[in-house]
Amino acid sequence: MTFGCSHAQQLIWQLFNAVEKGFDASGDTDTAFLAEVKAKRAQMDKGIHIGSWGQLQEWKVDRDSPSDTHRHLSHLIGLYPGYAITGYDPSIQGKFTNRQVIDAATRAAAWAQLGNATEFYHELSYAIDRNFGPSLLSLFNPSDPDPIFQIDANLGYSGALLNALFQAPDVANYSNPLTVTLLPALPKQWPSGSITGARLRGGLTFDLRWKNGKPVSASFKADANVVSRNVLVLCRGKTLASFKTSSGLTISISSF
After folding, report:
1. CA proximity to 115, closest of 188, 185, 38
2. C or N: which end of the chain has fewer Cβ atoms within 10 Å?
3. What's the pLDDT tens digit per position in 100-122?
4. Confidence grade of residue 141 (pLDDT, cut at 50, 70, 90)
């Protein structure tokens, strides 16, 4: 048992946001329940605390040790795949600045989300070399005669790979734009390539082609009956497009 650890608080905060965002679509009419969720969310500890040596705390209390080299990443759930850290907003989440949060998180291994292509590729290659068997499935000790199948690692591999090619982290509410970043952590070992039919939040299908480490074309198509929302497309800090989704909308980008 732990008392309000960072992992739990970040997940609960994101869950409460999901309740509000999906309330209308759910057909639920219990507005008293929604009001209670909003009230509890406003009162709760949202799971982001900077400790005495600049770390993002794993626990509610400042008990992390600089010499502790354990591999726990649970308190970075808001960096990836969540958004409590990635989309940090002090007006919603509290007193810490975005720079404080990200500086603390750079000590973690979510390199793709942090835009570090070198470390991303190193971690990915290491995983393939040490943890994947001839079947291309991740196994706990692949050399064991009866290895243990690791579903989290198998699903995590594809997620990490896609996160280096494009990122579109969720946001707390629909008033904030969905920001799509192209090639945020593309390693030099993949100078040219393409991806088609990728799915993004907001009911979007996405195609991307790049050459010599730079995008050359990108397209977005919205599903029918999507919830209309603002989308911002970025690459290397430059805004490439800004649009509002609607049913069947298609956006193509060829100028980079």
Report:
1. 185
2. N
3. 444 332 333 377 888 899 988 88
4. low
CB within 8 Å of 199: residues ≥ 6 apart: 205, 206
Q: How far apart are CA 159 and CA 153, in angstroms?
A: 10
Contacts of 165 (CB under 8 A, 6+ apart): 182, 183, 186, 195, 198, 208
Query: What is the C-alpha end-to-end distance of the chain, expressed in Å?
Result: 50
Amino acid at 12: I
Q: 52-61, 66-75, 100-109: which has the highest mean pLDDT?
A: 52-61
How far is CA 170 from each of CA 79, 176, 211, 231, rounded to the nearest angstrom?
Answer: 11, 10, 28, 11
Which pLDDT does position 1 carry in this prediction?
A: 58
What is the DSSP code (8-state) at residue 118?
A: H
216 burial level (CB within 10 Å; 0-12, 13-18, 19+): middle
Q: What is the pTM of this model?
A: 0.77
